[in-house]
Amino acid sequence: MRAIMLMFDTLSRNYLPNYGNLNIKAPNFKRLENYCIAFERFYGGSMPCMPARRELHTGKYNFLHRSWGPLEPFDLSVFELMNQKGIYTHLITDHSHYWEDGGATYHNRYSSWEGFRGQEGDRWVPRMQALQNENHNPLNKKGISVTQHFANRTKQLKEEEMSTVRTIDAGVAFLDHHKNKDDWFVQIECFDPHEPFYVPDKYRTAQGCTDKKDFLYWPAYQEIDSKEISEDIKDARNEYTALIAMCDFHLGRVLDFMDENDMWEDTMLIVNTDHGFLIGEHDWMGKNASPMYEEIVHLPFFIHLPEYEGARIRTDNIAQTIDIAPTLLDYFGLDIPENMEGHSILRLIKENAINHETILFGVHGGQACIYDGQYVYMRASANEDNEPLVNYTLIPTMTRGFMPADSLKEMKLVAGMKFSNGIPVLRIPMNNYYNSYKLVNLLFDLEQDPLQENPITDERLEKRMIEKLIAKLEEIEAPEEEYIRLGLR
């Protein structure tokens, strides 16, 4: 048995033709429907990038116990488990967070890995002589990562030099070399269409991008007035759409290879993402500081199962990122650990089983959200300082560095829990700039209001959703600090 997971970062569901957007030119994403089951209600869990990958490895929620960080010594990685059981696993990626302090333990869980430098603010090309950034749109991100990006671009002047393209090149080469072998899994993971939206002109022209000097190509995460900057939003959406079109072209290369080598007969394919992105919707830019609206957390997901007629099938059953790990184990005939919080998608498909009555999602220190198939409730901090907020960890790192000394001075070793698989763990108090207090509690009926334009005020319904939230928090053994922060104790 063989399996391919082709993963894109920041791939918004609402920008794909599979989910109703007929303006974008993405024929290969549409072509997935010829082979795959498309999910109507697939959701992320822990936001954003590395927290989502923690779920991908462990099948467990991350955001209630831990902010952005590496895999921990107590974590069980599904890819390491597959290695131990004779399934060769290989990671191909241009996602630079894998080799930073906050992600440095993920790629080594695979049998082997290869990476391509240069995305976003990857500290790659010496930036002392970076290209001059002449785009002065005030809504663009600023700082060291922008300077680094322009340094990296000096080595990515042609499409074939871009790291996403090199990632797909390596993926196709892996498939060619191993097409006659068995018992392997390959993760071909592209950082695009994550911002900054750096796109070859042929895709920009086709998608109607602007030729003006100061256009919005790297939105800074912030609350905005979408009416006042409607032209900037249009520019950013066009740039993002153009980058999706490039991803679509290179997705087609993988699909072509599978066609030419009859791989649909014996190879599972998953096409997925970690999260979406807001480009002006709900008067927000980004994915972290805002409420976890549908545009961020409701994801595209496609899966092809050999010997299962999945073409043109769509499922309404709820699934989540935490379900991918047990799905891989199930597909390869391996036992699923009891403490995984996800459930196999194969069971959902073949038996029409219900994987989840309710699901959680959110960002550490942000709103804790619960969805029951109709209503989504976003519970904000009840405390203006957003405390108590702690990290449970044995590796005190953040995105690109270590946790601050003031926090480390307060750390304590505490007893193990479900999250740490029973292993004692450090409890480290932390401040977090994702303060959900100002976002207030929000309640939406997604059946009646799928665009989340009209929050509901209904005390009885809110009470019922609070009860469901508490029950789910108890099920996964959420830390006591979260109950206090959210005003549930």
Overall pLDDT metric? 95
Sheet of most strands: 8 strands, mixed
Distance between the termini: 49 Å
Helix content: 25-40%
**Low-pLDDT residue spans:** none
Total number of helices: 13
Brief rundown of the structure:
The chain is α/β, with parallel strands linked by helices. The protein contains 13 helices and 24 strands. Helices cover 27% and strands 18% of the residues.
Question: What's the layout of helices and strands?
Answer:
Blueprint: E1 2-8, H1 27-31, E2 37-39, E3 42-43, E4 46-47, H2 49-58, H3 78-84, E5 88-93, E6 112-115, H4 144-152, H5 163-178, E7 184-190, H6 201-206, E8 222-223, H7 230-260, E9 267-273, E10 278-279, E11 284-286, H8 294-297, E12 298-299, E13 302-304, E14 313-315, E15 319-320, H9 324-331, H10 345-351, E16 359-363, E17 368-371, E18 375-379, E19 390-393, E20 397-398, E21 401-402, H11 405-408, E22 412-414, E23 425-429, E24 442-445, H12 459-475, H13 480-485
Parallel strand pairs: 1-7, 1-9, 2-14, 3-15, 4-16, 5-6, 5-7
Antiparallel strand pairs: 2-13, 3-12, 8-11, 9-13, 10-11, 16-17, 17-18, 18-24, 19-23, 20-21, 22-23
Could you explain the architecture of this structure?
This protein is an alpha/beta fold. It is built from 13 helices and 24 strands. Strands 6-5-7-1-9-13-2-14 form an eight-stranded mixed beta sheet, with helices on both faces. Strands 4-16-17-18-24 form a five-stranded mixed beta sheet. The longest helix has 31 residues. The mean pLDDT is 95.
What descriptive keywords fit this protein?
489 residues, globular, 27% helix, 5-stranded mixed sheet, alpha/beta
